[in-house]
Amino acid sequence: MNNKFVILFALLLGLGSTMHAQKEIIDFLNAGKADANKLANEYLRPYGEMLGVNLNSGWYTTAKVHSVAGFDFTLSTSYTKVPSGGKSFDADPDVLGLKTVVPVGDNTFAPTMAGKESESLTMLNPETNLTFDVQGAGADYLITPMLTGAVGLPYDTEIMGRFMPQVDFGDYGKMYLWGVGVKHSLKDYIPFVKRLPFLQLSVLGAYTTFNSSVGVELNKDETGTLDMGANAYTGRLLLGANLPVVAFYTGVGYGSTKSNFDVKGAFPSMPGEDDDKVNPIALAYTTNGFDFNVGMRVRLAIFAIHADYSVGDYSVITAGVGINFR
What we know:
It contains 5 helices and 17 strands. By secondary structure, the chain is α+β, with helices and mostly antiparallel strands. Strand 7 and strand 8 form a beta hairpin.
């Protein structure tokens, strides 16, 4: 695979942003293991929540279910931006429960990785007199490309899948992704909908999992990895109108995501600590809630382009192209 394409693809998936922020995460170890986890948890929260939300997007471009042996392949890209409230957090020791470090000065608000690179907050360990900065990484959005395929089965059902085998990005790390979904038509169960050929109604359930690993370096002698993973589940009720060239669709449903970030490796202890820090950072995020989207697809023979907008805590814009048969 072309190296420039590999690096671009890695950056689109956010590994570039994570690498930019990894120095901040390692610097947090100056606060001791317990406080480092509390600071890193808030610092990385926007990325953890965006990743899960993006993985639940791009599953459908119509409410219609394929006929038996009908199929489609769709390449879509989902864009999510961090809301203003996700660009900073209160690092007051009483708020986060910090035991070792305190902010320097009167300001206690620190940028998350979505904050501007020009924004920072200095933290001090009074016992060791060590300081470090919590600095924004400017990573306030996430773009996730996704290749999805579907094939029609009997009984007004289609099965969908997305898959990317493990790929090694060299210095950017490695990652893999896969997902599976099922869509079933409800059109024949409801007389009113059944009588209108252009109206479509279906239900969808889907699951996606993502894993990646990026190398991190404390100094020339100590290295480790930043492992990221996410599992996303979604269930949607889909309603659409299929016209000869244009199709409109909307989906209402519930999504749940779980993501984790783990710094693994053995790092030397700081003054006042008894043991080396082994696998010092372990973070987990859970997001869930109802959302809905509205979208449009334009078909030209077997080719199609689409775009939709999802409303939720993190709004998502998805657009793409594909081929569609029956």
